[in-house]
Amino acid sequence: MEKRKRIVIGMACLLLAGTANAQWVVSDPGNLAQGIINTTKQIVQTSTTAKNTLDGFKETAKIFEQGRKYYDALKAVHDVVKGGVKVKKSIELVADISEIYVRNYQKMLGDPNYTPDELSTISFGYAKLLSESADILQDLKNVVNVTGMSLTDAERLAIIDQSYKRLLEYRNLVQYYTDKNISVSYLRAKKKKDAERVVALYGDAEDRYW
Fold first, then answer.
1. Residue 200: enclosing H or E segment and its boundaries?
2. Least packed by Cβ within 10 Å: which of 80, 87, 142, 180?
3. CB neighbours (10 Å) of residue 140?
4. Is residue 97 part of a domain?
5. Domain for residue 186, yes or no?
């Protein structure tokens, strides 16, 4: 975690420089997770291949909105089996990571304190964190599929627990990455005596960004 945090700090500094069985939830076992995985992969692909930042993000936001049907369906699931709670929460974390990215990056695109190159760098950072999160979720899906691997229930539950902890780390890291990037804008705006614009754009969060 410390290593990843140092990487995130380094990326922000570059901007400052100017550059029972452990099964799926009872309701629709594999489709919700696979839908979110597919949506996440599409977001990552669009974020890393689009030539124009604004146009590329419009497509990213479109994909995210289309994927909301899986998020909304997941939130409606309450009937779970042993181990299912952590699985459900793990899927929700990946959905949450996507939402943090889309919601905040949309604001960054309208922020004059970033250059186009910096926005591309920020987008790439989000895409990498999102891609790694989707990979963990895919591995988790394979593990909890009782026909996919020869594991005991105890082994499956242990892997589910570890996957959840890793995804929680990534979720917190994405929020940290977001806050550090926003702090770049805030510090630049503060020098121009225009900090109120940043607060109005991202919200008043006191010590959140610096």
1. helix 195-202
2. 142
3. 26
4. yes
5. no
Q: Is the dihedral of CA 148, 37, 116, 202 positive or negative?
A: negative
**Encoded amino acid at 136, one letter:** I
Residue 6 amino acid letter: R
**Secondary structure letter of residue 79 according to DSSP:** -
Q: Domain of 161?
A: 21-169
Alpha helix segments (H runs only) across 76-152? 84-109, 116-144
Whether this prediction's pTM lies above 0.85 is answered by no
Residues whose CB falls within 8 Å of the CB of residue 8, separated by 6 or more in sequence, listed in order = 125, 173, 176, 177, 180
Residue 11 lies in a domain: no
Domain membership flag for residue 77: yes
Distance CA 149, CA 144 (A): 8
Residue linked to tokens 């049907």: 69
Between CA 104 and CA 55 the distance in angstroms is 16
Helices (H) and strands (E) in the chain, counts: 7, 0
Count other Cβ atoms within 10 Å, centred on residue 146.
15
pLDDT tens-place values along the chain, 210 residues long: 655 555 444 444 444 444 434 344 444 545 677 888 888 888 888 887 766 677 778 888 888 877 777 767 666 655 444 456 788 888 889 889 999 999 999 999 999 999 999 998 999 999 999 999 999 988 887 776 655 556 677 777 888 889 899 999 999 999 999 999 999 999 999 999 988 888 888 876 555 554
